[in-house]
Amino acid sequence: MESESGPVRIVVVDDDQLVRMALRLVLDGEPDLTVTAEAADGDDAIAAVEQHRPDVVLMDVRMPGRDGITATGDILSRPTPPRVLVLTTFDSDDFVLGALRAGALGFVLKDTPPAQIVDAIRTVAQGNPALSPAATARVIAAATGPRSSEARRSVRSAAAAKLATLTERERDTARAIADGLGNSEIAARLHVSVATVKARIGNVLGKLAVENRVQIALVVRDAEN
Q: Exposure of 8 by Cβ count < 10 A (0-12 exposed, 13-18 middle, 19+ buried)?
C-alpha cells in the first residue's frame, strides 16, 4: 500500500548500525515503502520524526539515552504523529505492555521473517494493530493472569472510571474493539453503519485520551478483568 503522497515513509530506529542497514535493504526493496531516515536512539528518533514527518516509525526498545518506549510516548504526544511499530529482541511483559500503553500500534520481534515485518509495517500504516503471536500472548496473560488483589482493584477502578465517561453505545463499540472486531464487523454487531462506527471510535479515542484501538482494548480489558 502507498500513502496518498506516495510510498509509506519510514524512520528506522535502532542503536545497531548493522540492523538499520539490513532493515533499510529489506524495506527499500519494496515498491510501496521507503526509509527516509535512520536514528540510533530515542532523542535522534524524535529529531528525525520532526524533520522527515514519516508515516511509520520502526522503533527499537533498548537503546542508550532515551529508550524506545519513552520516545514513543513523546512522539505520539505531538500533533499529527506517525504510527509506531516496535521491533525488538525483547518480549517481556514490561516491554510489550509498556510499548502498547505508550501508544505503539504494533509489536514485532526481530527474529520475525522479513516478509512478516513488511506486512506488519503495511498494517500499522493503515492504522491497524499488528502484534506478533508472542506479544499477543503477553497481552492476554497480563489481562487474565494473577495480580495482587490491591493492584488489580486499582487498575480495574482506574479503567472503569475511564469507561464511565463513555455513552452506552460508545462502550459497546469499545468492547467490540477489545474483541478484535474490525469496523464492518462492529457495524454488523451493533446494527449501525460503518460511518457511525468510525464516528463513535473517534469519540472513544478522545474521551479515553488514547491514540489507537490497541489502547482502547487495553482499557476495556483492565476494567473487566
A: buried
CATH topology of domain 8-142: Rossmann fold (3.40.50)
Report pLDDT digits (tens) over 132-184. 766 666 565 655 555 545 656 777 888 889 899 999 999 999 999 888 888 89
Q: How far is residue 147's CA from residue 72's CA, in Å, rounded to a whole number?
A: 27
Q: Please state the pTM of the whole predicted model.
A: 0.68
Work out the number of other CB atoms within 10 angstroms of the CB of residue 74. Answer: 18
| CATH-assigned architecture of domain 150-224 | Orthogonal Bundle (1.10)
Q: What are phi and psi of 193, to 5 degrees?
A: -80, 160
Domain edges within the chain: 8-142, 150-224
Q: Which residues contact 98 (CB under 8 A, 6 or more apart)?
A: 69
